[in-house]
Amino acid sequence: MAALLTITPGVDTMLVVRTTVAGGRRTGLLASAGVVTGLLCWALMSAIGLTAMLAASRLAFDAVRLAGACYLLWLGLRALWTARRRAPGASEERPPAPAIGRAAFRAGLTTNLLNPKVGVFYMSLLPQFVPDGASVFWTSMLFAAVHAAESLLWLAVIVAAAGAARRALTRPAVKRRLQQVTGLAFIGFGVRLAVDR
């Protein structure tokens, strides 16, 4: 079940592809690490019972949902704005690689943490598989570790594929089109999350 959830395309996959194409494999792997860190945070919150608050409190769920929708809309609008601008010239100063890597990690983490459906997934699905008499906390964390490992492996495959296609995808016209497509996809995900009940 975790493997099926992992390979289902969504916001995290789109973010990792876009980050890899824009910044290279290292940056894509850092975005993936951010996503997986977000999964582990959700798992920890679920194991100690905090995500139950999302299911019990409509206000808490809506607050996280709307924050996530706003963040996705911002990512989408930023991608569309980037697509409008010309590619940076050789004379333009680029941020240093560590700053780009931190931004990629932060984007992966934030995108995952602002998706309340991940928390509800951990709260509603994992407890069903905890054997009688087993520690709920440690068993839930073990299941989360399995899901995190599968996610990291799958996202590494995505990074490798996007990295291999990077040369073709970074041609100016293709890059602009990719920015437009991912921007519209992020906006679509954001609107869907905003109106989803």
Structural features, described:
With 197 residues, the chain is mainly alpha-helical. It has one domain. 80% of the residues lie in helices and 0% in strands. It has helices spanning 2-7, 11-23, 25-47, 52-56, 58-84, 97-113, 116-125, 136-164, 166-169, 172-195. The protein is globular and about 60 Å long. The chain starts with a helix and ends with a helix. One of its GO terms (cellular component) is plasma membrane. InterPro entries: LeuE-type. It holds the Pfam family LysE.
Shape: globular
Order of helices and strands: HHHHHHHHHH
In total, how many domains does the architecture comprise? 1
For the biggest sheet, the summary is: none
Alpha-carbon distance between the two ends = 24 Å
Summary, kept brief:
GO terms for molecular function: amino acid transmembrane transporter activity. InterPro entries: LeuE-type (IPR001123). This protein is an all-alpha fold and 197 residues long.
Key structural traits:
single chain; 197 residues; mainly alpha; transmembrane helix; amino acid transmembrane transporter activity
Write the layout of secondary structure elements.
Elements (H helix, E strand, L loop, with lengths): L1 H6 L3 H13 L1 H23 L4 H5 L1 H27 L12 H17 L2 H10 L10 H29 L1 H4 L2 H24 L2
Helix pairs in contact: 2-3, 2-6, 2-8, 2-10, 3-6, 3-7, 3-8, 5-10
